[in-house]
Amino acid sequence: MEEWLFMARIIKVGVLAFPDLEELDLAGAWEVLGATRRLFREGVFKDAYFELETVGKETGPVKCYHDLKIVVEKRLDALPGHDVLFVPGGPGRLKAQKDSAILEAVRKFYESGKIIASVCTGAFILAEAGILKGKKATSFHTVVNQLSGYGACPLKERVVVDGNVVTGAGISSSIDVGIKLVEIMMGREAAETVTQWVEYCPPS
Questions:
Q1: Fewer CB within a 10 Å sphere, N or C end of the chain?
Q2: Helix-helix angle 173-186:188-197, to 10 degrees
Q3: CATH superfamily of the 3-197 domain
């Protein structure tokens, strides 16, 4: 292992992967968080970066909604070793949000007090796990109001933070959630640096 790695605070992110997830839900935040490692290697960041890996019920290949194939690297029982859990959405969430093994893993992670984030309809996996009750949250614009059925307070905002839960609106807001996670874990200056690096102009 390269010597520079030993000097860093590595923030480990487990990205929940399941069939028919929405590609950009995952990729936007992955690009933003992954950029922190490059910026660390180039000396822009001095003491921390994010490291990501996919986590799911079973290891192996998974086909996303638009036919991109990804690989699940770790099983759900690896989640306690992560600092952040990231949950994408997509049509596949309808099955995932009824899977008792996924819901139990998500619930336990939340109860550990660590940060859990979702994008788009991934919020409904959090909701089914019972962790949005009494919390402000957002999701895809056509279904966000349905969160009230889980006891949540739905907001039509790009990113909503309530305690250790971060939720993002639809699809491309994955980028915004990634930036918010950088801000929470590494500070506002780091978030601004990454935003410039990925050349992102958030919607006004």
A1: C
A2: 140
A3: Class I glutamine amidotransferase (GATase) domain (3.40.50.880)
pLDDT tens readout for residues 21-56: 999 999 999 999 999 999 999 999 999 999 999 999
Is residue 120 a contact partner of residue 22, using CB atoms and an 8 Å limit?
yes
Helix (H, G, I), strand (E, B) or coil at 130: coil
> How far is it, in rounded angstroms, from Cα 184 to Cα 30?
16
Among 23, 6, 7, smallest CA distance to 15 is for 23
Q: Domain-by-domain residue ranges, the chain?
A: 3-197
In this structure, which amino acid lies at residue 56?
G
The answer to whether 166 and 176 have CB atoms below 8 angstroms apart is no
Q: CB-hemisphere CA count at 13 Å for 93?
A: 26
Pick the closest to residue 24 from 140, 138, 171 (CA basis). Answer: 171
